[in-house]
Amino acid sequence: MFFFHFCQSIYIHVQSLSLISNYFNNLMIRNVIEQAMALALVPALYVQELNDDEREDISELLHYFNDH
Question: Rounded distance, CA 25 to CA 63, Å?
């Protein structure tokens, strides 16, 4: 159940940041958000850095993710 709630909280936060249209229309943004959801399942050794453009587009979501 943890993984479901983890993904649900990220998706709700995406909605609250008005990123939902980007989620549906921008494949790169959707991939980054879905990868953030998958981070709970990935060992830290395999986590890669985002490029600057991707980081800027979802910076508020990343702050939320880091804080929780």
Answer: 22
Tokens of 51: 């490029």
The residue among 19, 11, 4 whose CA lies nearest residue 60 is: 19
**Chain centroid to CA 33: how far?**
3
Nearest in space to 58 (alpha carbons), one of 48, 47, 50? 50
In tens, the pLDDT along 22-34 reads 899 999 989 988 9
Q: Which structure tokens are listed for 66?
A: 């880091």
Task: Report pLDDT digits (tens) over 8-52.
Answer: 998 998 999 898 998 999 999 899 889 888 877 877 666 666 666
Please tell me the distance from the alpha carbon of residue 10 to that of residue 37, in angstroms, as a whole number. Answer: 7
CA dist 21 and 4 (Å) reads: 22
